[in-house]
Amino acid sequence: MSAWRPSLLGSDTQLNQRSYYEASVQRGPARPPLQEHLRADAVVIGAGFSGLSAALEMAQRGLSVVVLEADRIGSGASGRNGGQAIVGYASGQGPFESQLGPNEASRAWAMSLEAIELIDRRIAEHGIDCDRAFGYVYVADSARKATALRAEMDDLAERGMAIDWAEGDDVGRLIGTRRYVAAARENRSGHLHPLKYALGLARAAEAAGVRIFERSAVTALQRGDTLVARTAQGQVSARFGVLAGNCMLAEHGPAVAPEIAPRIMPVGTYIIGTAPVDAALADRLIPGNAAVCDNNFVLDYFRFSAERRMLFGGRVSYTTRTPPNLQATMRERMCAVFPELRGVPVDHVWGGFVDISMNRAPDFGRLGPNLYYLQGFSGHGVALTGLAGQLVAEAVIGQAGRFDVFARLRHRRFPGGPLLRTPSLALGMLWHRLRDVV
Question: Domain coordinates of the chain in residue numbers?
């Protein structure tokens, strides 16, 4: 296991036992594990959004592709997240503007809009039924945070986004709660069922000729002109490789990419799913079926599923340990926003680990001339992972200009080393929680 953090595997398995997403799909038979030696143009490690997107895009460009997944398709963050497809970056435009200048920053912004369009193009092209809905509401629960939200929305408006702003008594027009003092809605962002989308991407990739092997953790990767990815029972030799395992990559093969693992941090995030509510209540609480997120540092994010279950996410853990009394705590957070849901049963509670970078900007790059990595989506992965897969496929065939916009971003390791990084981050989170209540 990796020396710079505790193992995630045990707690990660427990966190997915009561997932609404898993309960609401029919996966079908598992793909077999790799049990042979294969040759391909490209090997992709990880069958989440970014790995499947990269595999699909490379196959569509005529390459033979093998995907190796340690667990099952979409079993990590791609199949457990809040399902919110959001324009822009968790970092905002700051790192792009300060490091790359205004022209390249504008180019990055345009690509974030393209990432949303790419989702809908793939849904239409491949017939992926994933409960797609449009609309996103940003909310603030104090005057200080409302000022910050207004500045953020003004920036989006300057970039051409249509923003519907509300404050005071007018907030109820966008969200049915008295908790927030300001709200804003835009309709480029939205939400979907992430596991249905992941499984749809996998079917599309296989239809394009991609071979996917589940239960096939890569434990070693030999680098060179030919890459060799080894699993317990087989190996793949390839001209190109894509590392798309994010924060789980080092859990299975700590020597696969030790250079990049310390630049991301696994953060636990958690969601509850209620029993379905009636249509009138759902429409009163979140008019227009938008996804919602506040602008606290330790944020709440929520939406209704297609069958009108409230999916309410929040809490974070930087220690890899599941918080105690998770269901009760999450229920109280939900009811603080929507008291009307206090009598509604909670049917599901689950979570998982997302990967964040120090500056919250995506971390894409190369480890040598033929090995690419995609990580650091920092909570914006539903849209950006698809774009990342497209960009790495372009780079593999020699058109790296757009990929290199992201590869030129500089990233730092998290401070503290193997022993102090987790306590340091926990203390930092405590400070931010205290600021959130002001």
Answer: 9-83+195-263+360-416
pLDDT digits (tens, 9 = 90+) for 291-311: 999 999 889 999 999 999 999
Q: With the C-alpha atoms ordered 385, 200, 202, 13, is the resulting torsion angle positive or negative?
A: positive
The C-alpha atoms of residue 338 and residue 346 are separated, in whole angstroms, by 14
Q: Is 60 exceeded by the pLDDT of residue 90?
A: yes
Phi and psi based region of residue 88 (left: phi greater than 0; alpha: psi -120 to 50; beta: remaining): left
d(CA 147, CA 132): 31
User: What's 339's DSSP letter?
Assistant: G
285: Cα within 13 Å, side-chain hemisphere:
24
Q: Is the pLDDT of residue 109 over 70?
A: yes
Closest CA to 166 of 188, 136, 134, 137: 137
Q: Which CATH class is domain 9-83+195-263+360-416?
A: alpha beta
Say how far apart CA 171 and CA 413 lie, in whole Å.
40
| Average model confidence (pLDDT) across the chain | 92
